[in-house]
Amino acid sequence: MAINHDEIKKKFSENIFWLSIPVLALDIVIFTIFNDKLCVVLTTRPKEPEKGKLILPGWVIKSGFSLEENFDDILLRKTWIDGVYKEQLYSFWESDRDPRWHIVSIAYYALVDKDQFLKDADFTKIQLVEYDKLGEVEIGFDHKSIIEYAKKRLNWKLEYTTIAKNILPQKFTLTQLQKAYEIILGHDIDKRNFRKKIISLKILKETGELEKVRSNMAKLYEFSDKELKIVGIL
């Protein structure tokens, strides 16, 4: 029996998932620090499957556009956040990730500082969930494992890069810098040793400005390089 190409085109146009080809999607794990807690940006799944559960901002990848363009489009449409630091994380390809069809997720993780997040985010579209409380909410699909994978990557990058700059305001005190590390890593860091190491690495520069902290004035710093720098911090 001859293949009816017109029928195939018709079915494919009606439902792109008719063919046995994995569908490519892009999901984004967005971390920020809010109220001294590491938080993740999630959205509510509006329909079945997993209706009502929290999921990562994501969508099917549009053909004809780069991954960068798809990332920017999804980030803006789903959260209204723009201009974040991002890294490609991993591709999740298990065939049972979604009960409808085989979806391969190209996952990214992104960092945004609190001030930019509060300025840009559309809270009618998103929910901010503390990382340590992810087990207390219902998360759809395999998105909890994607978030956990992203957290491990972030912890790892903190050890040998200046990635923390992307979750901090441009100007910060040494106390704020140390606090960011402690919040993300989940444990205390010796203040004296941390400051000694940070200063010795020459990755910061003084801004010449001061900020009042309780009854004292603290120096404000910023990172010397705009780009991510590889350096052993921890």
UniProtKB/TrEMBL annotation:
The chain crosses the membrane at residues 16-34. The keyword Disulfide bond does not apply. Keywords: Membrane, Transmembrane, Transmembrane helix. Pfam families: WHD_NrtR. Residues 166-223 form the NrtR DNA-binding winged helix domain. CDD domains: NUDIX_NadM_like. The keyword Membrane applies. InterPro entries: NUDIX_hydrolase-like_dom_sf, WH-like_DNA-bd_sf, WH_DNA-bd_sf, WHD_NrtR. This is NrtR DNA-binding winged helix domain-containing protein.
